[in-house]
Amino acid sequence: MSISTIAVAGGGIAGLTAALLLSRAGFRIDVFERAEQFTEVGAGLQISPNAGRILDNLGLGSALDAVATRPEAIEMRGGQSGRLVVSLPLARAAIRYGAPYRLLHRADLLEILLAAVAADGNIAIHLGSPIGNIDETADGVRFTAGSSSRNADVLIGADGVRSAIRAHLRGGPAEPTGRTAWRTTIPASAAPEGIARDRVTVFLSDRSHVVIYPIRGGREINIVAIVEEAWQSAGWNEPGDSAFIRQRFRGMAADLEDLIVAGKDWTRWCLSGVDANGPWQRGRIALVGDACHAMLPFLAQGAAMAIEDAAVLTRMLLRQGLPAEIALERYVAERRPRAARVAHAARQSGAIYHMSPLAAPFRDATMKALGGDRLLARYDWIYGWRQSG
Ligand SMILES: Cc1cc2nc3c(=O)[nH]c(=O)nc-3n(C[C@H](O)[C@H](O)[C@H](O)COP(=O)(O)OP(=O)(O)OC[C@H]3O[C@@H](n4cnc5c(N)ncnc54)[C@H](O)[C@@H]3O)c2cc1C
User: Fold this and answer.
1) Ligand 1 mean position to 353 CA, how many Å?
2) What is the dihedral of CA 14, 20, 26, 32, to 10 degrees?
3) Could you tell me which of 336, 290, 284, 315 has the C-alpha nearest to residue 13?
4) I want to staple 290 with a disulfide (CB 3.0 to 4.6 A). Which of 2, 120, 161, 365 is the partner?
5) Known catalytic residue at 353
């Protein structure tokens, strides 16, 4: 049976990108979003070239460039000394990888995706419509979306780290990682002079690190402090106590400490992971994004992997003559190894970033000896990814 309708559960980065790509491929898409309104957390997002290329191919490049900053480099610095350890050069990313590295506000990306969806006659958005009660039939999927009953030929679960569609496939719950992300944004004018406005700065410390970069075309600074702590919560956006985070980074390099003090309205997010080796697909149901591989954000690749998933899924469903079930199996066979490898690399980065004061000098010496160019080359397999086939 050919596919005429595809339902997407979730209107986040994964769901909206999948909807756009599938619609451009000629499918009719219904996106069911649990929330009554689209909202995004007030935080930044790094979109690396492997994902940026897909967004560029959707025709979104100039809209992204209007709100994004292209960083000169990713700089690693000592959290206490503030001294530069190594700088990975990104100014030539667009030439090296075929698409730029971009820094932007999550809400700006959501707005750009929603504007593209609104201009697309093949996508219907249904807000306040959580998908549940899934029933797999001989030729499709039946489910409820809020109070209405629906059918689709294929169901894509893009419903995030606590995915109901993954639960339907008997996937396990998201596992807390023992780390939290403290996030805030401040006007660039409120940041200390010593904080760079044209690059990503990562301050490395004992069992913590802080990532800082410009968003909104440089008008604001995004701050993410990662801390090892046992606190758990399901919310995206729990308020965080500024006194705790100030205390945690007291005694750090002066610019870093001043920046943390300048941060107001901190939110705290419990970092949870979803094992990429769990279920992704059964019959005409498949998962994309955090629903099947939520990972630590230490390589800034969660959303990028979701965008790659959407591209491969679309290519597989487009294959002429392939039954939907087989197309979805092939999607998983192609995506799972890469998502698992990136998740593993992100975990390794965490261990390297959070080394104890005893081990940190050896780490820093190794990074310095390797140098920024060679360190960047170690990520070519991530940033240089292209669709095959
Ligand atoms: C601190 C931090 C920093 C990060 N930085 C980066 C970065 O720089 N670069 C990067 O690439 N990634 C980054 N990530 C990862 C990235 O944010 C996620 O991987 C990405 O947002 C996942 O998108 P998603 O669409 O899969 O899930 P979500 O964004 O969680 O979207 C899921 C959507 O599904 C909806 N939903 C849930 N249940 C249902 C249901 N039953 N029915 C219908 N709708 C439902 C939700 O309301 C939501 O809108 C970061 C993550 C964190 C925590």
Assistant:
1) 23
2) 60
3) 290
4) 161
5) no
Active-site pick, 213, 331, 353, 383: 213
Residue 165 pLDDT level (bands cut at 50, 70, 90): very high
- Tens of pLDDT along 217-242? 999 999 999 999 987 776 666 888 99
Domain boundaries defined on the chain: 5-174+273-383
What's the pLDDT at 140?
94
CATH class of 5-174+273-383: alpha beta
